[in-house]
Each structure stands twice: as C-alpha cells, then as structure tokens.
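USER:
Try writing one entry.

ASSISTANT:
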Amino acid sequence: MGPHPAVAAIRLAVRRVLHDILTDTPDTPDGPLVLVACSGGADSMALASALAFEAPKLGIRAGGITVDHGLQPGSDLRAAEVLVRMTALGLAPVESAAVTVGREGGPEAAARDARYAALDEAAQRLGAAAVLLGHTRDDQAETVLLGLARGSGIRSLSGMAETSGVAGRYRRPFLQVDRQTARKACMVQSLPVWDDPHNADPAYTRSRLRHEGLPALEKALGKGVVEALARTAQLSRDDADALDSWAAQADPTVRDDTGLLECAKLYALPPAVRRRILRRAAIEAGAPAGSLFARHIEEVDRLITGWRGQGAINLPGRVVAQRQGGRLVIRQG
C-alpha cells in the first residue's frame, strides 16, 4: 500500500522542484544543499517532511531554518521546538534565526522583510542552492485578492512566483497544493503543528481575508474560487512577463544619445509598456520598488500624456520626475 493521497501529493510536488534544482545547480561532491523555511505550521511542516523524504533519494542534502520574529511571548521556545522537530525528520543542518521586526510598510510587510533577510543570510552563509517555502494555493488566492484590492495592476495579480529571489533561490512547491492537503499530510504522519495566533487575528489584513473575505466569496459564488484565483495568478504572470519583455526591448529605443527618456517616443508606446519603462526608470533612480505604487506611475505618466506645464512629481525614496525640453528626467531630488 502506498502513502496516503495527501502525503503522495506533497511528496510529488517537492520531488518535481528538487529535480529542477538539480538541473539548475552545478555538480558538487556532496550534492547541493536545500533548506526549508519552517515556522512549525502545517504548511511548512508538511514541506519539511516531504523534503526530508525525497532529498536523500536524489543525492540532495536537506536542512532547515526557522525564523523567530520575537512578536509573541515564548517565540524563542517555539523556535527551539521547531528545531527539534526538523532534527527528528532527519534534516541537517537546522538553525534558528532571531530577527528584529521594524515598522516600515506595516507589521505584515516589516515581518516579511525581516524574515527574508534572515533566510537570505542563512542561504548565503550555508551555501544553499535553494530555500523551499510552504506557500499554498490558498495563500496564492489571498495574494491575488490583496493585489486586486490595492489596484496595483497585472503584476500584482500574478501573485507569488514558483521561483523567485537572487538566482532563483526561493522555490514554492505547494502553489498547486491546497492548505487542507498539507494539514492532512501532517495529521496522517502524526506531525505536530503550531497554529500561529496571528493567522486568526483580525487586526491583520490577510487574516481577515482568510477567515471572512474568502468564505464570503465562496458562499456567494460557490466552491472553486480559490482554484480560479490561483489560475488567474498564472495567466496574469504570463501576460506580465510578456509585457515586461516588451518594455525591456523598447526602453533603449525611447532614449536620446545621453540616455534621457524622450516624451514623444514614450507617448507612441502602448500605456502598459510605457508605464513599465517609467517604473523601471524610477526604481533605477532610487525609488524603493515596494513603495512605488500604481498611482505614482500614473502621475509620472501624465507628464507624457497630459502635459499642461505641471511641476515635478515627488516619488518615494526622494526621487523626482519632471519634464524638461521634451525629455523626462527622473533623478534623486
């Protein structure tokens, strides 16, 4: 008799990603090291168990890291427990990283930034070929809805990529696996899981969406909303990738000999392509990508499409955009 269907599903998802990592990674005497980011929750514990099972069969070393955000009493004890659980699965090395969460961008964004900084540091120091993240299809659906609510455009609707980060460091094997399957896999394997109370705290936007927004949508529209949103993410990503490629090719053609953007040539481009060029120019000038919203780019775009002699546009990161003599100048203010 084979494994439970839920266990088989998570193992297959991880196996596929590990094969991709082997293809992308140069041969090493001891085999590549793959880490799992594990909070102790059902999704990441299911991922850790699947990695521990599949990696040795492919000659891959499997380790784990848990991040202690320090946001709840006893978080250090929780991190220590996760280390014990990862070790019991056979993962090595395993580490705990304590971080300080700032306030920039709100509590959820600040925690995410601190977490990824810790994962980046550990991956680089340990020489890991990849870090596996336990985001599920449900997480993807929530991300798409949050992007829709922000009105951030098609790139935001594309949700989380299966591969992201420097040199494709982060891999998300479970984006086609629902949250219930991951939890079921833990249950049938008798894996203890920790339910983060923040995930049920209505003070957090994603928590309200998870426990109120999505259930309301499913009640109104019927089952299948999560699957449809995840499918929307993939379709949006394909479109966004194509438009990004078009913008990258068009960028050199709308600049003068000094590298400044020419307004007349920008005006001739389709809006979706033009705004991508403007966004990239603002980021290159020093505007933080995470703080640069659609409304900022729309204001800059009006310097091209609705020129009435208006003054400079202030962007995040002390970046200024202004029209001068038929050229668009985007620079540090």
Remarks:
- The chain has twelve helices and ten strands.
- The longest helix spans residues 225-250.
